[in-house]
Task: structure prediction
Amino acid sequence: MLQEILIAGFGGQGVLSTGQLLAYAGMIENKQVAWIPSYGPEMRGGTANCGVTISDEPISSPLVTEPTTLIVMNRPSLDKFEKAVVPGGYILINSSLVDQKVKRDDVQVMEIPANQIAEELGNTKVANNVILGALIELTGIVSIESVVESLKKVLPPRRHNMIPVNQQALEKGAQLAREMKK
Amino acid sequence: MSKVLMKGNEAIGEGAIRAGCRHFFGYPITPQSELPHYLAKRMPEVGGVFLQAESETSSINMVYGAAGAGFRVMTSSSSPGLSLMQEGISYLVGAELPCVIVNVMRGGPGLGNIAPAQSDYFQAVKGGGHGDYKLIVLAPASVQEIIDLMQVAFDLGDKYRTPVMLVGDGILGQMMEPVELADEVTVPEIAAKPWAAGGLQGREKPNIINSLYIVPEDCEELNKKLFAKYDVIAAEETRWEEYRLDDAEIVLTGFGTAARIAKSVVDKARAEGIKAGLIRPITLWPFPSEVYARAAEHAQKFLCIEMSMGQMLEDVRLAVNGKKPVHFYGRSGGMVPLAKDVLAEVKKIMAGGAE
Result:
């Protein structure tokens, strides 16, 4: 099993931390993991992305140039990375913020209104975890339990009150992906 | 022990602290700035000194002072910063001062860019400053190995009274990987340094830290002494990793990030019936020449993979000594080789195509 996930959006959308959460969950499940951010000359409000590799084998390069899954949190990221996804791979789109359609027909696309769902849950900050929940459902890459476990380690104790709403977001995203798959 | 996810740059800092380093002098530069960020927070927690100097030239000379006073001390930078430090490194060697110098390499020459590269190999292993000297140069290939080699770096520096350099690249610095860390930070025992300028302590004559040898005979004696030391280091401290080498017909080689990519290509090539193996130098100086010489007895071809235009290549060729052809595949200027392209090169070489 080798999955290479590229998560891309605006700085401030939690793109880098979502990737870290996923990597941490993989580590908890004793898989090989690597995380790497784009660290080019970025600017505030500009695009940010990170690559997460989760594998049963040692990871050679952490760079994700041909993702098996692309998570798109804003429109510029779709323009930039749509072509990079491997044929047969997944593109998960935050359709609350991206109105553009995927042009390719050799990838599996799922549009998730992540901000809208997060708003319904009472906190727009958990939009990234709605998408992460859908990713987990589609790929089986890690379990939701491991992500929740990771939240306990990644979040400082004073923010642990945020764990339940994040868990709801993960479960809601997974549920939506289950329904869309049918 | 607990397993934590850690950035390479942070691991350099934590590794240094666990090796007993309590003095850091440096100046920020991408892609290693997380290291001073981390130590700015961490050093005060363990009663250490973090100081952001006004330049790399100042940093390296502050290292000279702290090392001369007998402390475990380090500095870090990225390629252009290391160029600025070369004079100070030569002085540290001349005064036989132990310290650790980190280079998280980026694209060059010139101001270049902040993307990962390995093009400071020559500067690191051939003596980037003036005079006859070598540095012990360590090249980790994972975040865990960074932690482990930081301890080695400080120990070897003290043991041989020599500066030690640890080289990485932007990928190793920026990436996060799991590392095993002891839950408690214990201060390791550090042998006494009776040569240090740390006060008279009952002696009659003060110790003097200096790299001036005005009488040529004296300076030649210093050089002989240094090179006798280098002979011992080469005999006892050479480190490398071998992978699937025993029956290899083509030997891939590289260090750090390039070696990780090469290792994955070894497996891919084997899966396609090509007998490939790997030699990964962990010490770039001393270079594990004998391992290549031995491999040249049975292997047919060598392929050196680097994130440069080919620098370690020269040492591989010296080690193979004309017995077998040594090919090269590299990307430079901040570009990183892709496994599939290296595999294509391996196939081409084994088909007799590339020369």
